[in-house]
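From the pipeline queue, job 12 of 40. The input is one protein chain; the requested action is below.

Action: predict structure.
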Amino acid sequence: MKSFIKFASAAALAIGTLSTGVAHANLSCVTNVTQVDIAGNGMIYVTGTGVGTSFDHNALCSVSSQVGGYTADACKELNKTLTAALLSGKKVTFWFNGGSSSCAPGSWTDLTNPAYGVYFANILK
């Protein structure tokens, strides 16, 4: 009986772990970057639009400290990537792993917040 209880507990834990992973599906959003800002505290903000996508001064990372999924050095590179996209007119894809299902998070939203969990970006050809 004790073996069965241990097995049932282990099975319940495994099922709970698997179902938790499914709840946080990744989301990708494509946008035309129209503005890149840096605040005095080092935060990088992006504004852009696309089909079903609207970013309005949304915080992505900090060039002065680790915030969310980006180190300060990675944020500096992201700032260069966003600036290149802005100047070239190319689109950028952002990936999120926080469980949000919206590519239109509203104005001045902190995308480093675990509810959004921005973790990756790239320029599209």
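Job complete. The chain has a mean pLDDT of 83.
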